[in-house]
Design a protein that fits this description.
The protein is an alpha+beta fold and 327 residues long. It folds into 2 domains: 10-117, 3-Layer(aba) Sandwich (Aminopeptidase), CATH 3.40.630; 154-308, Gcn5-related N-acetyltransferase (GNAT) (Aminopeptidase), CATH 3.40.630. Helices cover 29% and strands 30% of the residues. It has 9 helices and 12 strands. It has helices spanning 19-33, 41-48, 55-58, 98-113, 134-142, 182-193, 204-212, 260-274, 292-298; strands spanning 10-12, 59-63, 69-79, 82-88, 123-130, 146-157, 171-175, 222-227, 230-240, 243-251, 279-285, 302-315. It has a 12-stranded mixed β-sheet.
Length: 327
Amino acid sequence: MTVTLPPGFTVRPVTIDDLKPVVALIAARQIADGVRQSTTEDSMRDFWLGPNLNMTTDTWVVVAPDGRIAGYAYLFKSERVRLKTALWVPLEYDGQGIRTCLLQHVESRANQLIAEAPPNARVSLYSWVVESNHSARLFFEQAGYTVARGRWEMKIVMQEPPPLAVWPEGISVRTFKPGQDERAVFDAIEEAFRDIWGYIPMSFEEWEYTEVKQANFDPSLWFLACDGDEIAAAACCIYLAGQGWVDDLGVRRPWRRRGVGLALLHHAFGEFYRRGMRQVGLGVDSQSLTGADRLYKRAGMHAAQVYLYYEKELRPGEELSTQSIAE
């Protein structure tokens, strides 16, 4: 059933002029929901102008009669078999059918994109929902979505310098060298991430845009654990919402269970501490196939926020994303 918006409300694609009010909407809703604020105008601009989001066909805003933004949604199609959405509605507009209207636009577009997926592949649409947000959970459940996974946002607050990194024999650490390390780091991260639940291969061009070409990219915060000239592991860190953030951390299989990951974490924590940053966070699968969640706990981190992966199957077929590790 199609939902009709309240009189005077309209829906349209975003324009770059919507940047400031949309970011403000998200920030206000995150505060209301008790969620860490993580969206900046720079990050949103990069997202909208990226290669996997068409602002005309893959974004929507609901505009109130007074011109205010009353809702925002997007459909991210980087992974053609796992499409991602997020819906944002200010508290004052809750209960007016705006979220349902936005989801209908998202799902209609998602169904159009099924044709771009590999033949016979399973296609799904998903959204992350904060576990404590019961109204959002009920909304997705009533729309036919089910919980497939959990994700922890973990953090550490350092009251004193963290332990010094203890590197396994033969391992050294250095920072990322722009113009030299892009392809090697991409290959190392992709190899390590093949063992992450839900992994779908990413192209180098997409990775480069979403990681290296972002406004908050800082090569001095990308730490490479090397065995000779070979990259064994990498921790790609940034500043995010007033704290340090380990955006990606991957250890290739031959170097796992040797303490490389823990050393990288301690090294990153130490650098953030040296720069005056006392809090560091990251996101991890709560049932990590590689045991990354246990590693982060050993490093002194704890789960500060729990997210649930709500998913709806759009087309049955062969599951192309990683579901388990084949040793």
